[in-house]
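Weekly sync, protein design subgroup
Attendees: M.S., D.O., the rotation student, P.L. (late)

Item 1: inverse folding check
M.S. brought a backbone from last month's batch and wanted to see whether the design step gives back something sensible before we order anything. D.O. pointed out we never logged the input encoding, so this time it goes straight into the notes. Structure tokens as presented (157 positions):
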């Protein structure tokens, strides 16, 4: 999706695709796999922690919300670009989101059990450079997370 933006990232240097069932054990699996793949760009510990957090929130949403009423997979694609940009797609074919704008508001949650904070999208937005969310009710949701990795600080070298 959104090939127009790829020019900005210059050349794609590597790509990973991962399909996993939307079950809770795969939240940690997806987070670790994406982090391991991104390691080749030598991210700072802070950048890596940010990416792990954002992926964790996106995948948790697939597991907790998208497939509440049926079983299914989620699909992750990670593109790495020569200018140290990381682009991560998290796709599900679950229930979709009726009102994306509202869902992205801080503290908004449809979780009636009171276990969720409603801060998932806010975390993704704050920890990455860019977040796009496309969704169709009954069809699924695509979350795209983009971040250009910074240089390591002196402390992190
Ligand atoms: N992949 C998804 N499929 C269906 N609904 C989703 C998905 N991701 C998010 N949502 C909806 O958006 C709301 C806000 O998500 P989020 O900010 O992560 O907060 P939380 O998960 O704590 O409720 C969720 O409560 C849910 O209704
Ligand atoms: Mg969430």
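Designed sequence read out in the meeting:
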């Amino acid at each position: 999706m959104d090939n127009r933006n790829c020019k900005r990232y210059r050349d794609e240097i590597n790509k990973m695709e991962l399909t996993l069932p939307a079950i809770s054990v795969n939240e940690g699996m997806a987070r670790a796999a994406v982090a391991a793949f991104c390691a080749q760009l030598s991210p700072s510990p802070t950048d890596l922690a940010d990416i792990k957090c954002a992926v964790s929130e996106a995948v948790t949403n697939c597991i907790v919300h998208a497939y509440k009423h049926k079983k299914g997979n989620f699909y992750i694609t990670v593109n790495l670009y020569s200018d140290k940009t990381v682009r991560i797609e998290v796709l599900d074919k679950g229930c979709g989101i009726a009102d994306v704008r509202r869902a992205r508001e801080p503290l908004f949650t449809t979780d009636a059990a009171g276990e969720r904070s409603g801060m998932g999208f806010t975390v993704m937005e704050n920890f990455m450079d860019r977040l796009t969310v496309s969704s169709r009710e009954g069809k699924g949701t695509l979350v795209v997370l983009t971040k250009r990795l910074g240089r390591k600080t002196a402390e992190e070298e």
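Discussion: The radius of gyration is 15 Å. The mean pLDDT is 92.
Action: P.L. to compare against the previous round before Friday.
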